[in-house]
Amino acid sequence: MGIYWNLKMLMFPSLRPLKNRGVIVVGMHRSGTSCLAGLLETSGLWTGDVIRQAKNNPKGTRENRRVFTMNDELMKKSGGSWDNPPETLRLSTDDLTKIRLILREYESARQWVLKDPRFLFTLDAWLVHLREYQLIGAFRHPEAVAMSLYRRNGMTLEEGRMLWLKYNRKLVSLHEKESFPLIHFGPDDDEYLEQYRGLCAMLNLPFDLERVKEFYDTTFVHNRDEYPLPEERELRHVYQYLLDNSIVSTGGVL
Questions:
Q1: Residue 183: strand pairing partners
Q2: Tens-digit pLDDT profile for residues 105-116
Q3: Fewest CB atoms less than 10 Å from the CB: which of 115, 138, 149, 252?
Q4: pTM of the shown model
């Protein structure tokens, strides 16, 4: 709960928080957040009405349209967009009311999961409504993300690297405040699934290998992280932090 619950009680007493437990996946675009949300669904977490097939992701983005539309609206009101994220989030009572109405869809689930890369910039607006939540972070080598954004959006590699840095600075800052599991998307398939198995053990979630393999299609994982550490100092520093604090480095893999 912490500061977000206290803020809610003081400023918006009419907005009743969700009583059930939510899992929120945070991480940069093209960094395995969709894959992670899909895997969490195999462990019994409810995803709600999400996109299950997309042009650039045959398994779907696993994003709720109402959620990412709300996040886009918040970023726009704050002077930014997904590819030019704002430094400061501007919120109104009306915004928080809209978010609470969106979350009504998740009230009946025992445990649910939400995923949207934009959460790294809008998360405070959502946490106001949650009594219990678990963050899980996903990250990927900056060069792999830049290459993916080049192919999908026509973004230059340098633009992709700088956007990676904006998002992952936020991920590091959030992790420093609230320690939570980090999963590295990009290693070989066995290592990645071992990370997920370790995550399930850490969070006391069931790991159903048959369901996992049914969802996880290796042919959909392109451009693996076969890159050296970034040469640019800040990129290397942020990426190294994520590696050092990932499930593999902290001994979460069984």
A1: 138
A2: 999 999 999 999
A3: 252
A4: 0.90
